[in-house]
């Protein structure tokens, strides 16, 4: 049985149970004993996560109220709300407005941060994209409805052609130069860069959250901690060395169709147990002492 100290540092992202609502996630995650939940705007907007889309709608007040109550009743920390931004998409004003709305949602949930994807290049150079996104983020902060922290999460090049390394995220963060902007490293996305450990040290206390996922060479999707080739214990220890005291959230992704096709391995209850066991296996070693 994992210790409460370890369980309290484990978070589960709502993507690990794609067919459930956020309210159902809260109930199940709390029963598993973990300390935190990562809330997906996609689920609040459409009820479940059938496929990826860029969140654009306002969250129904009743849905938000029910989710807030579910978080409270479950006793979970909301480690982060995900995902907004995409400032290089058409209609910048709409994207900034959505980020402001997402900040209000995050505040209502008591989230420790809101994950932002700045957008793609869309024909711009790297420098042009960086500067464009910096100006957009500055405008977000100028009109911000609250003090919710925003976290930049770098992702793999085949998902976006901008912000692919933690170093690039730090560069954008430093250009914006706002105390409420930080970074949100995901081990699956960053292990290929070859500079992840050095970049983690450089990020220091601006790390607002962590997605702890494993990976296998040649595969485009993450896997459970311990099922891949990443030195996750070493990575966690490097993050801890920065003074980080937050949670490590697992974001195990798989097609939602497997929930009904292979319930023995992918029913919500089974997946949550698999995630908790996998995360415990890494964190019990990494946090020892």
Q: How does this model look, in words?
A:
By secondary structure, this protein is of the alpha/beta class. It is 45% helix and 11% strand. The chain has helices at 4-7, 22-32, 41-46, 61-74, 92-109, 126-142, 166-176, 187-190, 196-203, 232-240, 258-261, 263-266, 268-286, and strands at residues 10-13, 36-40, 77-85, 114-117, 150-152, 181-183, 210-211, 248-250. An 8-stranded parallel sheet has the order 6-5-4-3-2-1-8-7. α2 packs parallel to α4, α6 (126-142) crosses α7 and α10 (232-240) crosses α13.
Which terms would index this structure?
TIM Barrel, 13 helices, 289 residues, eight-stranded parallel sheet, alpha/beta, 45% helix
What topology does this entry show?
Blueprint: H1 4-7, E1 10-13, H2 22-32, E2 36-40, H3 41-46, H4 61-74, E3 77-85, H5 92-109, E4 114-117, H6 126-142, E5 150-152, H7 166-176, E6 181-183, H8 187-190, H9 196-203, E7 210-211, H10 232-240, E8 248-250, H11 258-261, H12 263-266, H13 268-286
Parallel strand pairs: 1-2, 1-8, 2-3, 3-4, 4-5, 5-6, 7-8
Helix pairs in contact: 2-4, 5-6, 6-7, 10-13
